[in-house]
Amino acid sequence: MLQHLSVIIVKQTDIYGREDWSMLENCTICPRECKVNRFEGGTGYCGMNAGLNIASICIHRGEEPVISGKDGICNIFFAGCNLHCIYCQNHEISQNSILVKDSGMDHDIVLDKISEILSEGISAVGFVSPSHVVPQVKAIIKGLNSRGLRPITVYNTNSYDKADSIRSLSGLIDIYLPDYKYVTTDIALEFSDAPDYPEVALKAIKEMYFQKGSTLRTDENGRAENGMLIRHLVLPGHVDESKKILKSIAEELSPGVHLSLMSQYHPTYHVRNHPLLNRSIYKAEYESVVEAMQDMGFRNSWVQDMDSYQNYRPDFSKDNPFE
Ligand code: SF4
Q1: pTM, whole model, 2 decimals?
Q2: Alpha helices per DSSP H over the chain
Q3: For 290-311, how does the pLDDT look when each residue is reduced to its tens digit (9 = 90+)?
Q4: Rounded to whole angstroms, how far apart are CA atoms 28 and 16?
Q5: Which residue puts its alpha carbon closest to atom 6 of ligand 1?
Q6: I need a labelling partner for 177 at 20 to 30 A (CA). Which of 23, 137, 212, 264 fits?
Q7: How far from each other are the two terminal CA atoms of the chain, in whole angstroms?
Q8: What is the pLDDT of residue 312?
Q9: Best of 20, 22, 32, 158 for a ligand 1 pocket test (most atoms within 8 Å of beta carbon)
Q10: Which atom of ligand 1 is nearest to the CA of 82?
């Protein structure tokens, strides 16, 4: 059965450890450091309170094959975001426009939903856009563990994470799936309102690399069980930025890391008048980045078909946004 939760605001508050509770009371969970009390509402930059803030829980088959496996992954899509990317493909939930506050669902109901999906033979749980809800991620994993469930856990992040947050997840997360968006301050400011993104993201990804290294361990069916896979979305008119990203990964980490180079960018109506972002990427642009990736010696990479954007346009008003 497909699972969909319009919104979940947790009424019970005993699901957090002492340190995470304090963080939520004076929020410095992400680099924005808003210092708001999230138990009193979602007044910080991300707009999310101390509840679980889940927009959707569903089976998703559209990640890289090594992440989705043949049966899919149970993805938990969090509402809100600590980046406001002007081209966001998940704007329905990251900008909170379709959410209805306080559905009365709680931690146990969330665990029930996830458990039900796992009982269908799904073996991995993905946390999507989790940077502003790290305590909530931990509470869900610990709740599943207390029920005797130990799914493969995937931290699917925009990488605007504090390195300390990533350190606090050591031992809880099996696979890091960080998006590495920009290395140029001006671009990070214009597109995501985060001029410090390049520095912050590199530190966070380095911490992930410290924990996992270059190896992406897989099972006998080729499904990832442990490691890190870095994603990069090629943006129209930004081939040079993509090449700088690749150079940064090769020099700061290793060309041996696993890399997913995405061509799926598709303009939303928010950028219909943007001079560069108002179109999909050209085949020649993508091929140029793929060639650079090969020249730099990356040997563990995934590439996408040019028409793949048609499969990555979620509709969060549906039970399953991707089907
Ligand atoms: S998690 Fe949200 S409230 Fe907390 S610092 Fe980041 S943006 Fe601000």
Answers
A1: 0.91
A2: 18-25, 65-68, 91-94, 107-118, 134-146, 163-168, 185-192, 197-212, 239-252, 283-295
A3: 999 999 999 999 998 776 655 5
A4: 15
A5: 30
A6: 23
A7: 13
A8: 54
A9: 32
A10: 7
